[in-house]
Specification:
Chain A has 288 residues and is mainly alpha-helical. Chain A has helices at residues 2-32, 39-55, 60-82, 91-113, 136-158, 160-170, 172-177, 182-204, 216-229, 233-254, 257-274, 279-282, and strands spanning 126-129, 132-135. Chain A has a two-stranded antiparallel ribbon. In chain A, a hairpin with a 2-residue loop joins strand 1 (126-129) and strand 2 (132-135). The longest helix of chain A has 31 residues, at 2-32. In chain B, a hairpin with a 2-residue loop joins strand 1 and strand 2 (145-146). Classes of the chains: A mainly alpha (288), B mainly alpha (365).
Chain lengths: 288, 365
């Protein structure tokens, strides 16, 4: 019984971390159709922002929830202005340029911070269920994933901002005729996506070592999740995270973490062969 | 002279230069430099494999390093179990080709778009990297070959002459073999591209719908070119394992995949010579950066990629080709040689020639 509960928490945790890792990418790709291969490096910057903030004596929670998203959001604005803006509509070129950016960011951070692992210890300690002990931070990750999903839904459907953003993505000309500047909306959307990636990096910093190349570990998972999810941003994100997270965690439980990742990928490829449009292309058509 | 004929001229010139280098270089270079040149040739083969499937097949593969790595690991493992190098050499081509065929089947027959394709191939590379990287323990071995995890496989027996296990290739022999492979791959692809199959492949890149309406199964042609690309990358991987008698998971890594893309972008998409030029230039640059220790090589490579995508999207070779073309036309139009009245037949020629520029042609470097 205890074991079942622990496994359940682990699976929920795997799903939640996929949601957190992929949310920023889902916003940028799902709304703007920009493939951001620098996603992992945005997360890495978020993690470094947390470390820098801690060195300045800022509280860990403030560093994770406020400093990291704001710092990376600002980086996002700058990069959108300098590079991404020139490439809208040229998907392959955006992919190449963002890959260039990712290498560039890794290079810059390596030059500044060195190629060593910095660490943040996980807060909250652990509690025990029967004979097993579970880290309290696991529950924080699950809670944040739920809150994040609700927040994205709320912003996109219930606020003026979400309405404008969705309208602009569907018909930029029409939005422009109504007096909205599409380029500003793109810029803000990209910044929000970048900020979400930064938040993800900050939140995961205590769980993984912080190195300049840490982004590579996340970018593949995030992309598979977003692509497996399909056209609907939120439903796809949650659907694909649940499916892949569960497969990953259960395979990890039975074998090793690496084989868990392989199982995730194989599941994703088989799924894309059966549902080329992703989960929401077939089942949750028209949802958000 | 129309573009098609000119592309044959440029191919002939490239081949002539290649053959001259093949026989000339060992005479003028010492063994150390020759070994350096060999690795450039190995990487050039890898670059050409992507140049073919991306530039002519329109398939953006972010994971060409996966086939490269598979080739080198296949060779290493087979060689450690067999002793004679003929079968491992062939396996190193066949195994990545099969893997590419399987992956390509999922991608093309699932009708996934360009962008999804890029992401999936990238993911496959990362997973292979993680998988091989985690095989450090002594329990991970295939026959006599320990996989070695992140340490890689050292002391791989190198190629021997077919059937004679004791006749191992010298560094000079390896140069001849590698460089000949490069020339053969180049020539083979050049012939393939101008054959009927090649024309369908290029046509499918330009407009898949139209190719389907003409009765060709574009998916099969894409699968064929992707598989061929995988085979060539595998060959490069095998030669790489031979060059250093060593292979490690980093050849699956993101950095390696990025480099191949950068060679093609810098050299010029849609040419076969361009990526060789790009490969040599970038390889030389990274080795220079490596010795200086002032700049981080990722920083420079990333910067180059961004700059080329934004400012020189066609790459060095086509841009140079255009410049030569322009200079040539200007020369011919100089008043001294030009006839006073343009012949009526010559006038409409230029606009008709122009559309050919986008098809399977190649400009001289």
């Amino acid at each position: 019984m205890d074991l079942a509960l622990v496994v359940l928490i682990q699976v929920l945790y795997a799903v939640a971390s996929l949601v957190i890792v992929s949310a920023g990418l889902a916003v940028i790709f799902g709304m703007m159709k920009v493939i951001n291969l620098a996603h992992g490096e945005f997360m890495m910057l978020g993690a470094y922002a947390v470390i820098a903030a801690l060195k300045l004596g800022i509280n860990l929670w403030i560093a994770m929830f406020i400093v990291a998203p704001i710092a990376v959001g600002l980086v996002g604005v700058v990069l959108e202005r300098l590079v991404i803006r020139r490439l809208y509509g040229r998907m392959v070129d955006t992919m190449l340029a963002t890959w260039g950016l990712s290498l560039l960011l890794v290079g810059i951070v390596t030059s500044v911070a060195g190629n060593t692992t910095a660490g943040v210890s996980a807060p909250l300690g652990s509690f025990s269920i029967g004979a097993y002990s579970v880290s309290g931070y696991t529950l924080v990750i699950i809670a944040v994933a739920v809150a994040l999903s609700l927040a994205i839904r709320f912003v996109l459907t219930r606020t003026q901002l979400g309405l404008i953003a969705r309208g602009t993505m569907q018909k930029p000309d029409m939005a422009n005729a109504l007096g909205i500047s599409p380029s500003r909306v793109y810029s803000v959307t990209f910044a929000v996506g970048a900020a979400l990636s930064g938040l993800a990096g900050g939140l995961l910093a205590p769980l993984t070592g912080v190195v300049p190349t840490m982004g590579a570990a996340f970018v593949a998972k995030a992309f598979i999740t977003v692509i497996g999810g399909g056209p609907a941003i939120l439903a796809g994100l949650i659907g694909a995270s649940t499916l892949f997270g569960a497969i990953n965690q259960l395979a990890t439980f039975v074998t090793t973490p690496v084989l868990g990742e392989v199982a995730l990928l194989v599941a994703a490829i088989v799924m894309l062969r059966l549902l080329p449009q992703g989960i929401t292309g077939r089942f949750f058509k028209g949802s958000l | 002279m129309n573009r098609f004929a000119k592309s044959w001229v440029s191919a002939a010139i490239s081949l002539a230069v290649g053959v001259a280098l093949l026989f000339g270089l060992p005479g003028v270079m010492d063994d150390y430099t020759l070994i350096e040149v060999t690795i450039y040739a190995v990487m050039s083969i890898l670059g050409v494999s992507l140049a073919f499937i991306w530039g002519f097949g329109g398939i953006l593969c972010f994971g060409q390093a996966a086939f490269f790595g598979l080739g080198s690991y296949t060779y290493a493992i087979a060689m450690m179990n067999m002793g004679d190098s003929t079968v491992p050499f062939l396996l190193a081509i066949v195994v990545p080709a099969l893997f590419a065929a399987l992956l390509g089947y999922v991608i093309f027959y699932g009708r996934l778009s360009d962008v999804y394709m890029g992401v999936i191939t990238l993911t496959v590379t990362l997973i292979l990297f993680n998988l091989i990287n985690s095989t450090a323990g002594p329990e991970w071995r295939i026959g006599n070959a320990p996989l070695g995890g992140f340490n890689g496989i050292p002391a791989i027996p190198t190629l021997n002459w077919p059937g004679q296990q004791d006749e191992v290739l010298t560094p000079k022999d390896l140069f001849y073999v590698t460089f000949s492979c490069l020339l053969l791959v180049y020539l083979g692809l050049r012939v393939l591209i101008s054959s009927k199959i090649g024309r369908v492949i290029v046509a499918a890149k330009e407009n898949e719908q139209r190719v389907l309406l003409l009765g060709y199964d574009a998916r099969a042609y894409k699968l064929f070119s992707f598989t061929l690309g995988g085979a060539i990358a595998g060959l490069a991987g095998c030669l790489f394992a031979n060059w250093g008698a060593f292979t490690s998971p980093t050849i699956f890594g993101l950095g390696q995949s990025a480099q191949i893309i950068i060679w093609v972008i810098v050299g010029g998409l849609g040419t076969l010579v361009g990526p060789i030029v790009g490969c040599i230039a970038i390889q030389w640059l990274t080795s220079q950066i490596g010795t200086q220790q002032t700049f981080n090589s990722n920083l420079v490579l990333g910067g180059i990629l961004v700059v080329f995508v934004l400012l020189v999207p066609r790459g060095i070779v086509p841009t140079l080709g255009d410049l030569i073309d322009m200079a040539w036309r200007r020369l011919r139009k100089t008043p001294a040689h030009a006839p006073k009245v343009a012949s009526p037949a010559a006038a409409p020629k230029a606009p008709i020639e122009a559309p050919h520029a986008l098809t399977a042609t190649e400009t001289a470097p």
